[in-house]
From TrEMBL:
Protein name per Swiss-Prot or TrEMBL: DEN2D protein
Origin species: Himantopus himantopus (Black-winged stilt)
Biased composition (Basic and acidic residues): 1-14
Coiled coil (UniProt feature): none
PROSITE patterns xrefs: DENN
Positions of the UDENN domain: 39-430
Gene: Dennd2d
One MF annotation (Gene Ontology) recorded for this entry: guanyl-nucleotide exchange factor activity
Keywords of the record: Guanine-nucleotide releasing factor
């Protein structure tokens, strides 16, 4: 029965025409040390079509895969077909330029088997004097570590300004290095003509669940009050649309919102930057968290969508809301979190990015501990070692009426169900999560 329910849930949340993504904070595959850093490096360039427009195409792929089995080949074809769309999600309205500011963003794709791949992108203008078109270097990896890959893309960009030929040995060296454990460093040797051999140190942050996130990006664009309204919508798995001009802003802010849910995981449609041709995703009746470029605002508002929270990251305001967002979270805890966020906001210049991440995360984890931290004492264990969650007793054990009212809604979410399913399999409480 559980398997059937799981299959149904997957079908409901993943319309096959849209490459879907889910942030993988709790997926162990994202954090296992020693695997390959990446699966592919691809270059996506804009090629002129017969009608004079530009279409993104993969012009370079490393490594080239040979002797793939039929299923692997089909999966690779699907992946390589989706990548150009996500590297140039802003359509084909391009013209050659002499200046262009590099931008970094990412996307998430889900395979048929539910495993996830992350595309780390750097859009840049190759070296030259004449007018030319930007291109995207995209690293495909199943490892969630945004800071680390941003540093790798810095190295790729530096080499691109010399020659494409200098990128290959660097990426080969990276591919042969094992992904470091949290807090550890891996050193890559790299030769650059006229500069000699360089040693590039790549250090992985100590706290695995925060290594893919930048809460400062969110605090710089939204008030603590707005962040709490967004969190309240996300925690009840509603529809959230974020708008910004820059792909990097959309990407950073959406990853940060998803990370506020830790130790729970957003289990629905998740597209940090929606390609122009997929904007009708916002008509989807199931929950989603998506980012759309600001120039499509009118088109978004025209869509026949169900209730959604629409956030303008340029102006730092909420354009459309359901109306009850202020009442979702218990007021006492809401005020505590507000105080905590205001404190971090006022000290933004003092704290490092890692400190802000830790402080913000702590405030939200504390909220979940207060609300549902007693879950493990309401799992009844049978002799054969399988557990059954006692939902009624769990809710009844909450003394505060306002807290109980919230928890009764929260236990119905997919993210809570998945968390409990995992807990029922193991007699060891998920202590590492809290």
């Amino acid at each position: 029965a559980t398997e059937g329910k799981e299959e149904e849930r997957k079908k409901e949340n993943n319309p096959s025409r849209v490459p879907q993504g889910k942030p993988g904070e709790r997926s162990s595959v994202l954090y296992s040390a020693g695997q390959f850093f990446f699966e592919y490096l691809v270059v996506v360039s804009l090629k002129k079509t017969s009608d004079g427009r530009y279409e993104p195409k993969i012009t370079y792929q490393f490594p080239k895969r040979e002797n793939l089995l039929k299923g692997q080949k089909e999966e690779e074809e699907r992946l390589l077909k989706a990548i150009p769309l996500f590297c140039f999600p802003d359509g084909n309205n391009w013209a050659p330029v002499t200046e262009f500011t590099s931008e970094t963003f990412s996307f998430v794709l889900t395979n048929v088997d539910g495993s996830r791949k992350i595309g780390y992108c750097r859009r840049l203008l190759p070296a030259g004097r004449d007018v030319r078109l930007p291109e995207v270097f995209c690293i495909i990896s199943c490892l969630g570590c945004f800071g680390l890959f941003s540093k790798i893309l810095d190295e790729v960009e530096k080499r691109r300004q010399i020659s494409m030929a200098v990128i290959y040995p660097f990426m080969q060296g990276l591919r042969e290095s094992p992904f470091p454990a949290p807090g550890k460093t891996v050193t890559i040797k790299s030769f650059i003509p006229e500069s000699g051999t360089e040693l590039i140190a790549l250090t992985r942050p100590v706290d695995a669940h925060l290594e893919h996130v930048e809460f400062q990006a969110l605090l710089q664009r939204l008030s603590p009050h707005h962040i709490l309204l967004i969190f309240a919508s996300a925690v009840l798995e509603r529809r959230l649309i974020f708008l910004a001009d820059e792909l990097s802003v959309l990407s950073q802010c959406i990853h940060a919102v998803a990370a506020l849910l830790y130790p729970f995981t957003w289990a629905h449609t998740y597209i940090p930057v929606v390609p122009e041709c997929l904007i009708d995703t916002v008509c989807c009746p199931t929950p989603f968290m998506v980012g759309i470029q600001m120039r499509h605002l009118d088109r978004v508002l025209e869509q026949p969508m169900e209730e959604a929270l629409i956030v303008d990251l340029c102006e730092g305001k909420i354009i459309r809301e359901v109306g009850d967002e202020e009442d979702i979270l218990p007021i006492k805890l809401q005020n505590e979190m507000l105080t905590s966020l205001n404190r971090h906001n006022n000290n933004n210049n003092i704290h490092t990015s890692e400190q802000v991440n830790a402080l913000v995360s702590e405030a939200f984890v504390h909220f979940f501990v207060r609300m549902v931290g007693h879950y493990s004492s309401h799992i009844k264990w049978s002799k054969n070692g399988s557990g059954t969650f006692q939902e009624r007793a769990f809710c009844k054990a909450i003394a505060s009426k306002t807290n109980r009212k919230f928890v009764k809604k929260f236990v119905k979410t997919n993210m809570f169900s998945l968390f409990i399913e995992e807990a029922e399999k193991s007699r060891i409480p998920q202590e590492g999560k809290w």
